[in-house]
Amino acid sequence: MAEAELHKERLQALAEKRKRQAEIEDKRRQLDELVLQLQHFKSKAMRERWLLQGTPAMPQEEDEGRRKQVEQDELHVKTLEDAIHRLESEICLLENEESQISAKEQVLRERLRETERSIEDLQKVYDPHNRRTHDTVASDCVW
């Protein structure tokens, strides 16, 4: 019965590990998308700043519009950077959880091996076809 319980716990640990791995993969995909967006907005903001510096005689309305656009892009860059840091933290936590689950699964696997070894040892001792072990057990008995 203990062996069945160990198998059940190990299977649960493996399922949790797979779940964490899927979550990590999903978060990494999200992270890659955010990094691409961040690169785009950083280059866009840099271009807008460059354009603002390069045009000395620009109408005030157009100048104000570009400044607002630069501010919006910089705000968006900040938001993306925050989201990236949050995702990196979440990935780190999930990786730690996965590592703990792997360690638990390894312990359960080792306990299962020990259980299987002890069952095999018992089978060897009580196997009637194995004359040597049967005689050894019989000689240990007092008649």
From TrEMBL:
Top-rank taxon, per record: Eukaryota
GO biological process, alphabetically ordered? regulation of cell shape
What membrane topology does the UniProt entry give?
Lipid-anchor
Q: Which Pfam families match?
A: Paralemmin
Q: Which GO terms describe its cellular component?
A: plasma membrane
Name the major location. membrane
Location within or outside the cell: Cell membrane
Q: Which UniProt keywords apply?
A: Cell membrane, Coiled coil, Lipoprotein, Membrane, Phosphoprotein
Which intervals of the chain are annotated as region Disordered? 52-72
> What does the record list as coiled-coil region(s)?
1-44
Q: Which InterPro entries does this UniProt record tie to the protein? A: Paralemmin
The entry's protein name is: Uncharacterized protein
